[in-house]
Specification:
The protein is an alpha/beta fold. Helices cover 37% and strands 20% of the residues. The longest helix has 16 residues.
Length: 310
């Protein structure tokens, strides 16, 4: 496989790019966007906003050591759906990225004008600088005075570390994923052929569905305990069971990530309090498996059981 001189399809920086899978996908190693793969038909066919959003997703996945993302016509919509939208949420992503580079309390970290813009899904350096200033004014970091140089030094404060710690639930290192869904027999294949293999086989987490767990506890107490121990929750709202809404809301109250699913034909009946969330609207078990695995890898990462037999 020979390298060919190319530009990154997301940020247009010059780089060495290789073609893989018989020309079906291009492998990219970009100092700004990280390592990822992109389907050849998408090369040159993304608009500016899609490129900006995907650059943030691929960079964060790369920095977190997640599985190399493959951007296809199908997966790009789910990857973009995982992009943080609110200002505070994007600022916390930047704070977390700085903390990951910090080797010890008080360590000074360099943020680079050109290459670190995707850390906060910013459109340009001016927007990136505004987020750095936001964190500084909130006393979550201390930064040096801005200069015309290529970088600025920042230090995460005690308050910054405390914020990150409070935003991570006790199950942050957990190998389990709680599944909230209707136990109706008509949805068994959805769990067995879609949800469970996506969580376990494709992403390396242990799926927990309360009706499949043996226990002597009160069912509600057991639900609470399992959600608290979980790294994330997968909630399928097909048939719109009240219990699923309740369990997803409980997880959100604990700052545990929730991945929203619903059969496409039933999305019109979604409750108005939740319809604005980025649901994976699925039509078949195989489609659900592929899209759920992509969403988990993009937003959570690979689990501790990946490649194992757990």
């Amino acid at each position: 496989m020979s390298d060919v001189h190319k530009r990154c399809p997301l940020c247009f920086q010059e780089l060495k790019q290789t073609r893989e899978n018989n020309g079906c996908a291009a492998g990219v190693d970009c100092p700004r966007c990280g390592q990822f793969k992109i389907a050849v038909p998408l090369l040159g066919n993304l608009n500016d906003e899609e490129r900006r959003q995907l650059a943030g997703v691929t960079r964060e996945a790369h920095d977190l050591g997640r599985l190399t993302l493959l951007i296809t016509e199908e997966s790009r919509h789910d990857l973009i759906a995982s992009v943080p939208r609110r200002i505070q949420e994007r600022a916390v992503h930047l704070l977390a990225a700085i903390a990951r580079r910090t080797e010890f309390f008080g360590d000074r970290v360099e943020l680079f004008r050109e290459d670190d813009v995707p850390l906060v899904y910013a459109k340009n350096f001016d927007e990136f600088a505004s987020f750095v200033n936001y964190l500084d004014e909130a006393q979550l970091i201390k930064r040096d005075t801005w200069t015309t140089g290529p970088s600025v030094s920042v230090t995460v404060t005690a308050s910054g570390f405390e914020m990150l710690e409070t935003r991570h639930p006790t199950g942050a290192e957990s190998d389990s994923a709680f599944v909230a869904m209707s136990f109706c027999g008509s949805l068994q294949s959805v769990f067995l052929e879609g949800i469970r293999p996506a969580i376990k086989d494709d992403c390396g987490f242990r799926p927990v569905r309360i009706d499949l767990e043996e226990h002597n506890d009160d069912i509600i107490d057991r639900v609470f305990a399992e959600i608290r121990k979980s790294r994330f929750v997968v909630a399928d709202f097909s048939q719109h069971r009240n219990g699923v809404y309740f369990e997803a809301g409980y997880a959100m109250g604990l700052s545990i990530p929730v991945i929203w699913l619903c059969r496409k034909s039933e999305m019109a009946s979604a409750h108005f309090d939740t319809e604005h969330f980025n649901h994976i609207a699925w039509e078949s078990e195989s489609e659900l498996r592929d899209r759920l695995a992509t969403r988990i890898q993009a937003t959570i990462g690979m689990g501790p059981l990946a490649g194992g037999t757990g």
